[in-house]
Each structure stands twice: as C-alpha cells, then as structure tokens.
Write a structure and sequence with these properties.
Blueprint: H1 4-45
Length: about 50
C-alpha cells in the first residue's frame, strides 16, 4: 500500500504533466491561429492575388 507522501508525489507529478500538456496544446493553437490570421491579412491586402 502506498503511503500518503508517495500518493501526494504521484498526484503532484500527474498534475504538472497535465498542465504541461495543456500548455503545449494552447501554444500550438496560438501558433496556428497566428498563421491563419497572417494569411487572412495577406489575402486582404493583396485582394486575394497572393497564392502562397
């Protein structure tokens, strides 16, 4: 049977891993959104004539 300290350490580890995973997903979403926003701005400025 695990002691309270070991359970607490395991829980702490899992919480930190979950936060890191969510943070990476948020960063990826932000990067994708920034790229889409850039493409929309380029299309608007060039009136759709830029195909990249």
């Amino acid at each position: 049977m695990k002691t309270q300290a070991v359970i607490s350490e395991d829980l702490d580890k899992y919480v930190h891993e979950a936060i890191e995973c969510v943070s990476m997903a948020a960063n990826m979403l932000h990067s994708v959104w920034s790229e889409i926003d850039y493409c929309i701005v380029v299309a608007r400025v060039t009136k759709g004539s830029h195909k990249g």
